[in-house]
Amino acid sequence: LKGVVALATGGDLSVRYQAKSSDEIGQLGGAFNTFLDTIQQLMQQKIDEQKRKRKLQLQLLQEQVKPHFLYNVLEMISSLVQCGMSKEALGAILSLAKFYRISLSSGSDIIGIEQEVQLTDSYLMLQKLRYIEFMDYKIAVDPNLLNFAVPKLTLQPLVENAIYHGLKAKRPRGILSVSGVLSDDEAVFEVYDSGQGMDEAKLQELRAAIEHPEDAQATSHFGLISVIQRLNLFCGGRAKVTVDSMFGEYTSVRLSFPAVPLRQPEPSEGG
């Protein structure tokens, strides 16, 4: 019994005393096993509670497509109509409809990478119409990736950061690119912008926030941190994020996570 107690005290709560008799030591060992069972159950309940709480928080964030984005796009469409640019206005309306159709996605938190790319493309098309004087973009994603799963709105916060903290902060005209490949059973994405970039101090601050996302929720990196947290919930903590940047030149954010096939919805009865 002494050895079991020592192991449990050292942190191994999976150990159990194997009673060889029903004497006082055997009874004490049985009580100690029950004690360990209770501790493990309470710890698991706490872990599950924290996971549920974090998931609810992140789902709420995930669904909060900023109201000012919709307001600004509607204003832009109104301006296009007033200027007689009906073709551009119609294109903006269609892009807006696709963006919100996918971002709502019947309440599902996990969507196909193909849908995520379409959502990101719609968002970028709208932003290019607004900021045509200083931004262009391109998207290149390996077709082999499209049937895998991803948390909804994984790429959108990254391209938003690239626009507002990269291209818009620098000007003149720059490029934003989104690429995705399947590599060794991992989905690998890169969001690159030729914008303002970061100096070494800001880059190190961002890398520290990525390393310890639990301490960074209130910082200016909240969008990126939320992406990391949702990816880690999705893939059991196996997401990897790296950031490279040079002030006045570029910023590159690289995400990688296990390629998980998208689960198809169950067929309805009689369907």
Number of helices: 8
Mean pLDDT: 82
Oligomer state of the chains in this structure = single chain
Helical content stands at 40-55%
Number of strands: 7
Structure description:
This protein is 52% helix and 17% strand. The protein contains 8 helices and 7 strands, in the order H-H-H-H-E-H-E-E-H-E-E-H-H-E-E. The strands form 2 sheets. Strands 2-4-5-7-6 form a 5-stranded mixed sheet. The chain is elongated and about 95 Å long.
Topology summary:
Blueprint: H1 2-9, H2 24-63, H3 67-82, H4 86-104, E1 110-112, H5 113-130, E2 135-141, E3 149-151, H6 156-170, E4 174-183, E5 186-193, H7 200-211, H8 222-235, E6 240-246, E7 250-258
Parallel strand pairs: 2-4
Antiparallel strand pairs: 1-3, 4-5, 5-7, 6-7
Short summary:
It is built from eight helices and seven strands. The longest helix is centred in the first third of the chain and has 40 residues, at 24-63. Residues 266-271 have low confidence and may be disordered.
Question: Top keywords for this entry?
Answer:
alpha+beta; two-stranded antiparallel ribbon; five-stranded mixed beta sheet; 8 helices; 17% strand
